[in-house]
Amino acid sequence: MKRFMLPALAGVVFFGASSAYAQTYPTKPITMIVPFAAGGPTDTVARLLAQSMGAKLKQQILVENVGGAGGTIGAARAAKATPDGYTIFLHHIGHSTAPALYRKLSYNAIDSFDPIGLVTDVPMTLVARKDFPAKDFKELLAYVKANNTKVTYANAGLGSASHLCGMLFMSAIATDLTTVPYKGTGPAMNDLLGGQVDFMCDQTTNTTSQIKGGKIKVYGVTTKKRVPSMPDVPTLNEAGLPGFEVAVWHGMYAPKGTPKPVIDSLVGALQVALKDPTVKQRFADLGTEPVEEKRATPEALRAHLKADIDRWSPIISKAGVYAD
């Protein structure tokens, strides 16, 4: 009898401890790891969420920028963190492309994390320096095809959203362009504003204010529908690239093994934040919007991540783009 009762008793003790922990969680500030430099689009999303989620949890959420290697350095740190709910991790679509882009990863994009939920789908924009000669997308297409060795396409580095969008664009127009990789979106945008590079594809969270300020030209958005904050900008599908679509989704994770009651608390805080009028307005100003509540769940993020890994792996493999 004793042999059979002990495991059951252990389970009761563990459940009781887990429940008690969840009831007191959090008792100290939480760190949200963002695997990119401060000031970029993912950092902007993170800081909006951190403020609202922190208010719900009654603890400060500190954003820690751990950039480098297309987000994999920050991801590795998050994967190795203590699974106690005091480290969470916000990443974008790059989390689904890293397994194909990098030959060696110290973590598994799916198995090393407990998903919390999807956050937002951010459209991208095809933009150029202010004095780029093409007036519209039709002229842009003709120009880059005729001058492919001279035209420079900036991106924020291997595995970045702008890199992925650029690969799809070059594949769609069957033209290879001269790419100029940067260490982040900020430096790439600075050189675009300064006229050192010709054009790039980047998230609306990073381009909307520059477009509205007339500092750069815009040729189209990469989603099926136009962006409400820029209703006059056509989709690339409308402009002449049928079926072209890419959005930069963001997801929130915790290290694998984080207690479920703690995950539930974080899910609840995330869902409250996504309904926060201030967050919704700021997202709208940046050309995006929060996901529906049913998508801000661990199950939805897990399924979305798996589907995107399956989508991007053959595209990256065909392009022959890898990093050690």
Keywords:
12 helices, globular, D-Maltodextrin-Binding Protein, domain 2, 2 domains, Tripartite tricarboxylate transporter substrate binding protein BugD, BUG, signal, alpha/beta, 9 strands, 324 residues, 46% helix, 9-stranded mixed sheet, Bug_dom1
Outline the structure in words.
The protein is of the alpha/beta class and 324 residues long. The protein has two domains: 164 residues, D-Maltodextrin-Binding Protein, domain 2 (3-Layer(aba) Sandwich), CATH 3.40.190.150; 117 residues, Periplasmic binding protein-like II (D-Maltodextrin-Binding Protein, domain 2), CATH 3.40.190. Helices cover 46% and strands 19% of the residues. The chain contains twelve helices and nine strands. Strands 1, 2, 3, 4, 5, 6, 7, 8 and 9 form a nine-stranded mixed beta sheet that branches. β1, α2 and β2 form a beta-alpha-beta unit. α1 runs parallel beside α10, α2 packs across α10 and α4 crosses α12. The relative contact order is 0.19.
